[in-house]
Design a protein that fits this description.
38% helix, alpha+beta, 4 helices, 136 residues
């Protein structure tokens, strides 16, 4: 899980808002983008709201949550899970592709662009090679 900030018009002025993104790894080792949401900032209530949405859509059996600077699980997996570099690459692509817009007229316009971009990335992930394998 990670967030990136974008300029969004709110109540007549432009402010920075957080685009929260959660990715996951299935039992079969493939990555998937699980959800995204625009929030005022990346505080606990914002993340909690996104996770409640994911649970409502059927997310269960979470074994590990990785955010910036956390370690976990078997040592052989640390190379892949010790950072949010995968999400940082997504955020970099979102920033690159949103540079043309400069600022967004509302939360929905930011979310529309973000969803289009992450759907393309997600398609590559679910049809590509496995990210983790049981043999690792």
């Amino acid at each position: 899980m990670d967030a990136s900030y974008f300029k969004v018009r709110s109540e007549g002025r432009y402010i920075n808002k957080a685009l929260l993104i959660v990715t996951g790894i299935h039992k079969n080792g493939c990555r998937e983008i699980l959800g995204a949401k625009v929030e005022a900032n990346e505080d606990e209530p914002g993340w909690e709201s996104l996770f409640e949405d994911l649970k409502g859509r059927g997310l269960k059996g979470v074994k590990l949550v990785v955010s910036d600077g956390h370690k976990a699980f078997p040592r052989q997996h640390w190379r892949r899970i010790r950072t949010t570099n995968g999400l940082e690459r997504i955020n970099k692509e979102l920033k690159r592709r949103s540079r043309v817009a400069g600022a967004f007229s509302n939360d929905e316009s930011l979310l529309r662009l973000a969803v289009c971009i992450v759907m393309d990335i997600n398609e590559e992930w679910v049809t590509g090679r496995k990210y983790l394998t049981a043999e690792d």
